[in-house]
Automatic annotation (TrEMBL):
GO molecular function: hydrolase activity
Record family assignment: Belongs to the pectinacetylesterase family.
EC class name: hydrolase
Main location: secreted
Function noted in UniProt: Hydrolyzes acetyl esters in homogalacturonan regions of pectin. In type I primary cell wall, galacturonic acid residues of pectin can be acetylated at the O-2 and O-3 positions. Decreasing the degree of acetylation of pectin gels in vitro alters their physical properties.
PANTHER family: NOTUM-RELATED, PECTIN ACETYLESTERASE 4
GO biological process per UniProt: cell wall organization
Name the UniProt record assigns to this protein: Pectin acetylesterase
């Protein structure tokens, strides 16, 4: 590739990783001391021991701390035709609040991706993400859902609802006769109806008297709560303190493409790693049109969202200002496009090295035919320094810039907050080990739970952004290669 001729050098970098390789003796001593403290906390802490099953679903403390909560089908689902993809009845798990938390409500929306075509939606019908038939009839409430003050200091006694996800659209699909029953396949696109029916039911059973409320969710559930945040706010009394917390729900419009000769393109830039590990950045505008097309044409997540939004009739559920502005509704499935329009205070919990995003958005298998990212996608410690640099530039720095820019440096959003930690993980609020435990990830010594508490109760500024990987020894980093 005649890269040099087209060079429009943004910056050349010796790598933000260089510092890591050049750690001084003093810094190494400090890192060792930190490790010793972590070890001390792990082994000698007065807190219940955690047994970690990571990335997975549960981080279980002792049996006595765990609480199994039964599934409740939505009572008006049948009447309102608010069905899961397969026609079964959606529902939720409710644990009543107590004491001073009796008038406070925390709604947590489950995640689980989206489906974009008849085949993938039909496949989903045969799983708990498309049918309540396959859902566990009890769910364990941990982390932000825990009723235990040690595990959940600020919200333990609130009313808590875990909403099950079975529509494939982040609760925003609408009935479409032209796709719902196409080609002999019975599929119900009722996400918005499920949402409306659920809200009615929660208001009826006590939420209409809430004095405090948090709408939260993880992954596709995090996107759902961003989509529905202001509507949720408007359902509650004016003097209710309502806020929204999205966990790993900020999905960017980016994807990497690994070309031969080690070139990698993303968004509007392409960068080149030469044999000497130098990374150079170019604007794609400086490339020949044929090359440009190849780069721009590979927006995996963008075309995926386009298909999800159009198949499932989602347009009307999206932010109206955004849709009017952008013209193409599916653009408004990207939080970066509408988050600035949200009026209600929002908090983002987002790992800067979100493994789900690396796997599915930044470096999807298709964009890496040679498999040079295979090991790195499974475990961040397998990434070489070039790959870490790519992740650093596009994820760590990308988030920082994109979030801060989107939120206008928080100038106009004083009640907003964020916890962006440099860990290889996905959701962090609903597992005890990542939410609040002696071994939880921290930024400036605060856990996710403490930061969210600081934000919700306005105790102090809650914008916590980590240093780049691998600087934070408190991280949980998932190992996907472990199976
Ligand atoms: C349907 O979507 C799945 C998942 O995104 C994809 O792998 C598959 O190729 C799609 N099928 C068709 C027919 O488009
Ligand atoms: C139904 O099948 C026809 C013919 O195979 C195809 O053109 C059409 O796109 C399908 N409809 C949907 C919604 O997949
Ligand atoms: C996504 O990125 C591409 C390339 O930068 C751009 O053409 C497209 O408009 C973007 N889409 C959205 C929704 O921002």
């Amino acid at each position: 590739m005649p890269a040099n001729q087209h060079r429009l050098l943004r910056f050349t970098s010796d790598g933000p990783w260089r510092w890591w390789r050049q750690l001084s003796q003093r810094e190494l001593t400090m890192a060792t001391a930190t490790a010793a403290i972590v070890f001390f906390l792990l082994v000698l802490s007065p807190f219940p021991k955690t047994s970690r099953t990571f990335g997975g679903t549960n981080v279980i403390t002792s049996e006595a701390d765990s609480e199994w909560v039964p599934f409740t089908p939505l009572s008006k689902a049948q009447q309102n035709s608010a069905f899961c993809l397969d026609g079964s009845l959606p529902g939720y798990h409710l644990k009543r609040g107590f004491g001073s938390g009796s008038d406070s409500w925390l709604i947590h929306v489950e995640g689980g991706g989206w489906c974009s075509n008849i085949t993938s939606c039909s496949d989903r019908k045969k799983t708990k993400l498309g049918s309540s038939t396959y859902m566990d009839k009890q769910d364990q409430f941990l982390g932000i859902l825990s009723h235990h003050p040690v595990q959940n200091p600020d919200f333990f006694n609130w009313n808590k609802v875990k909403v099950r996800y079975c529509d494939g659209s982040s609760f925003s699909s609408r009935p479409r006769p032209d796709t719902e029953f196409q080609n002999g396949t019975e599929l119900f696109f009722r996400g918005q109806l499920i949402w409306d029916t659920l809200m009615d039911e929660l208001l009826t059973i006590g939420m209409s008297k809430a004095r405090q409320a948090i709408l939260t969710g993880c992954s596709a559930g995090g996107l759902a709560i961003l989509i529905h945040c202001d509507d949720f706010r408007d359902l509650l009394p004016k003097d209710t303190d309502v806020k929204c917390l999205a966990d790993a729900g900020f999905f960017p419009n980016e994807s990497l493409r690994v070309f031969k000769y080690g070139n990698i393109g993303i968004g509007n830039s392409l960068f080149y790693i030469d044999g000497k590990n130098k990374v150079s950045f170019y604007s794609i505008a400086s490339f020949a049109p044929s090359i440009r097309k190849d780069i721009v044409g590979n927006h995996g997540i963008e075309s995926f969202y386009h298909d999800v939004v159009h198949l499932q009739g989602i347009a009307k559920s999206l932010n109206h200002d955004c849709v009017a502005r952008s013209g193409e509704p599916s653009k408004c499935f990207f939080p970066q496009e509408f988050i600035g329009n949200i009026r209600t205070p929002v908090f983002l919990v987002q790992p800067a090295y979100d493994f789900w995003q690396i796997e599915n958005i930044y470096v999807p298998k298709l964009s890496d035919p040679q498999g040079s990212w295979r090991k790195c996608r499974l475990n961040i410690f397998n990434c070489n320094s070039n790959q870490l640099e790519v992740l650093h530039v596009f994820m760590y720095a990308g988030y920082r810039n994109s979030l801060l820019r989107t939120l206008d440096g928080f100038q106009n959003k004083p009640k907003w907050g964020m916890f962006i930690n440099s860990c290889f993980i996905h959701c962090q609020t609903w597992a005890a080990g990542t939410w609040h435990s002696p071994t939880s990830p921290r930024i400036n010594s605060k856990t996710v739970a403490e930061t969210v508490g600081d934000w919700y109760f306005e105790r102090e500024s809650a914008i916590r952004v980590d240093c780049p990987f691998p600087c934070n020894p408190t991280c949980y980093n998932k190992d996907l290669s472990a199976g």
